[in-house]
């Protein structure tokens, strides 16, 4: 019996029981893109291989390509073989592929959407999908209006007590507050708020979810998770690659809109929020919204932020071009590839504790982490020089790669002298658990099928995030200055170090 066909209901000890999707299917718009090939298709296969999809699951691709169903199946097969995280099983694949369909057409093609509606109706009969379908928008935001209009016209958004229809939206969620509000209004005219799932793949990562377990399942951390003990928090997302083939998307958007507005502000909210009454989606969102609503920007936005552009140089032993030399980038582009901001949270828990957020391309290494840096002990009863190499205690949540948690603290160096030096205690998922962490898109796609919205930002969170970022973007635009160049393989522009130095602090070197 294959994983997809097995019946875990026979074994009440199977912990997958609450996480197995019911009858359902997914339609992917933009199915020919890299996201679909590298993430979505492999994630769907991995879910099937783990026994978490229903036996009659259906996957429908929609694109302009002149593909048959067999052509589409071959594309999915190749993507799965290359990018899936679980071993390839012919039995699982064969059963999953029976539910594949492909619809050819453009977004303004009424006939194509009528065909799509008929295809879903047929799948309801043949595969038993029960009228439950999710529409995945792996497409540019400017294509949303016409696709939403077509779905509504063809009656594919209709809900009832016995069936659901959901829409999944990839970032960016607008380019500023105004466009985000327009986008939210557009989507809400077609789908009710509980049926809208905005994907932020960072929130599907195991370590991000473990942040909640770390804080609220353990007594030892929560008493010191506040301004009495925490000096500051650093949240970093660094990439060691350039824009590559994303130049057309990236130029004009930049690092702040691409990463800080969504990923890093969400991580900040999870780090700073109060304990929710439960992990019910409403309670979880309420606490995140409180944090975002309490964020205060620096009075001097230029001094409290930094922006840069990577220059040509050497990285990983290879000569790499600067941003302005990348194909598709104008020589006069003022788009930043590095952004750092200082934020404050005006509430009792975090009063006076700065949160430093930074992101960039072509930096020293690929790493994403949350570092909670604690205040120094108020008194050190050691001789002068004994603690010369002792830094601040820190708790570092490693989001990627090498997911885990590191605690840095002072320890005596072996020997006759009382010399105290920093050491680290490390927890790694790979070493501590035999179970492999699922890929973020596995978790998020399954949550969509289950109707579990906890990890998906709602419109209020999105709009609050833009209220934070918009004044910074306006200040940068008003200054009309070129982003500061920084060397490829470095850790960003000098202005980012100056931002920290003004506060008597320094960035961590991951």
TrEMBL record:
<feature type="active site" description="Proton acceptor">
    <location>
        <position position="263"/>
    </location>
</feature>
<dbReference type="Pfam" id="PF02781">
    <property type="entry name" value="G6PD_C"/>
</dbReference>
<dbReference type="InterPro" id="IPR022674">
    <property type="entry name" value="G6P_DH_NAD-bd"/>
</dbReference>
<feature type="domain" description="Glucose-6-phosphate dehydrogenase NAD-binding">
    <location>
        <begin position="27"/>
        <end position="210"/>
    </location>
</feature>
<comment type="pathway">
    <text>Carbohydrate degradation; pentose phosphate pathway; D-ribulose 5-phosphate from D-glucose 6-phosphate (oxidative stage): step 1/3.</text>
</comment>
<dbReference type="GO" id="GO:0009051">
    <property type="term" value="P:pentose-phosphate shunt, oxidative branch"/>
</dbReference>
<feature type="binding site">
    <location>
        <position position="205"/>
    </location>
    <ligand>
        <name>substrate</name>
    </ligand>
</feature>
<dbReference type="InterPro" id="IPR022675">
    <property type="entry name" value="G6P_DH_C"/>
</dbReference>
<feature type="binding site">
    <location>
        <position position="258"/>
    </location>
    <ligand>
        <name>substrate</name>
    </ligand>
</feature>
<comment type="function">
    <text>Catalyzes the oxidation of glucose 6-phosphate to 6-phosphogluconolactone.</text>
</comment>
<keyword id="KW-0119">Carbohydrate metabolism</keyword>
<dbReference type="GO" id="GO:0005829">
    <property type="term" value="C:cytosol"/>
</dbReference>
<dbReference type="InterPro" id="IPR019796">
    <property type="entry name" value="G6P_DH_AS"/>
</dbReference>
<comment type="similarity">
    <text>Belongs to the glucose-6-phosphate dehydrogenase family.</text>
</comment>
<feature type="domain" description="Glucose-6-phosphate dehydrogenase C-terminal">
    <location>
        <begin position="212"/>
        <end position="508"/>
    </location>
</feature>
<keyword id="KW-0313">Glucose metabolism</keyword>
<keyword id="KW-0521">NADP</keyword>
<protein>
    <recommendedName>
        <fullName>Glucose-6-phosphate 1-dehydrogenase</fullName>
        <ecNumber>1.1.1.49</ecNumber>
    </recommendedName>
</protein>
<feature type="binding site">
    <location>
        <position position="239"/>
    </location>
    <ligand>
        <name>substrate</name>
    </ligand>
</feature>
<dbReference type="GO" id="GO:0050661">
    <property type="term" value="F:NADP binding"/>
</dbReference>
<keyword id="KW-0560">Oxidoreductase</keyword>
<dbReference type="InterPro" id="IPR036291">
    <property type="entry name" value="NAD(P)-bd_dom_sf"/>
</dbReference>
<feature type="binding site">
    <location>
        <position position="201"/>
    </location>
    <ligand>
        <name>substrate</name>
    </ligand>
</feature>
<dbReference type="Pfam" id="PF00479">
    <property type="entry name" value="G6PD_N"/>
</dbReference>
<dbReference type="GO" id="GO:0004345">
    <property type="term" value="F:glucose-6-phosphate dehydrogenase activity"/>
</dbReference>
<feature type="binding site">
    <location>
        <position position="361"/>
    </location>
    <ligand>
        <name>substrate</name>
    </ligand>
</feature>
<dbReference type="GO" id="GO:0006006">
    <property type="term" value="P:glucose metabolic process"/>
</dbReference>
<feature type="binding site">
    <location>
        <position position="171"/>
    </location>
    <ligand>
        <name>NADP(+)</name>
    </ligand>
</feature>
<dbReference type="InterPro" id="IPR001282">
    <property type="entry name" value="G6P_DH"/>
</dbReference>
<feature type="binding site">
    <location>
        <position position="64"/>
    </location>
    <ligand>
        <name>NADP(+)</name>
    </ligand>
</feature>
